[in-house]
């Protein structure tokens, strides 16, 4: 550089330290502008245009996170640093300032380029079946946080002129403070690894967590939060670590099984439960679904009564109902419901199916349907369930039964308006 200025002096140019510094600064700025125009206006613009028009998905994704723009700016910082060593005197104040600024520039855009690379990898992994099942966003956010801390330590050590090891050793005394400040990110990072390793949750799963009012599809698994879009289109944010420390329900198993459970009861008025007489049995025998059951039960009961001298056809003058076996209307109704579900086209026949009695209470005798539909689509499931119970309420009177319900205002008014007998 000194030789260049000496040659200029031979041509009559008066070169002073100030003018030489201004000349070097002009050369460096001009070089930086030329390189910037070549990289950003020519190379990157052409590459981006061709990548976006390409049918290859990875080319489209790789241009969406400014990866090459940041790499180009990183390269410009390296070129400025090289120029400072070429044009400026080593050890001078100007050289130190320009070199330090260039190094800080390189550190910053190295970090930003690394962030862009992680974002590209994350988007590409979401297109893969395996990657979409892992909470990679939280893990990548943890990596970004650690990288930012390391770059910040390097930048501070560069400005202070101290070794990074000194700053890192000094952080040991601040470990307790750092643990408190970064408690949620640390817990979230550990929780994300546990969620991934144990296959507890992935994007798109139906999550139900009443503690946080969450009931919907998981849309995002981050370092500190998990976002759930509820079925009413509201968004619930849950701390990531709470998915490990608290309990939640993941409905993905139901979706994968191909069947969704129906578990609903009706309460029968116990005062309407009675034995079926011959006329009732003859009438119910006309039901196609009940014919096999009725024939089998009638034969079984007749044989039992005959063996125990409790048959109405025996020579005994009077047979008590307490000594006989008889069919009841509620048992026959339960058998009808079971046969009805067995031939229903929308009930999964390979899964658990039963109609059972629960313990009676003040609301009557609960009769519960426990079955699974052959679809997991919510709207279809609700329609199937409603159709089954529509039919149930419509046919229950054929068995001489009534559904228990709390008296309404109209019932009480009718009772009050009834004249005394």
Automatic annotation (TrEMBL):
The chain crosses the membrane at residues 20-44, 104-122, 142-160, 166-182. Pfam families: MS_channel_2nd, MS_channel_3rd. It comes from the Bacteria. SUPFAM superfamilies: Sm-like ribonucleoproteins. Keywords: Membrane, Transmembrane, Transmembrane helix. Residues 341-402 form the Mechanosensitive ion channel MscS C-terminal domain. It is a multi-pass membrane protein. It is found in: Endomembrane system. Residues 184-252 form the Mechanosensitive ion channel MscS domain. Belongs to the MscS (TC 1.A.23) family. This is Mechanosensitive ion channel family protein. It comes from Candidatus Pantoea multigeneris.
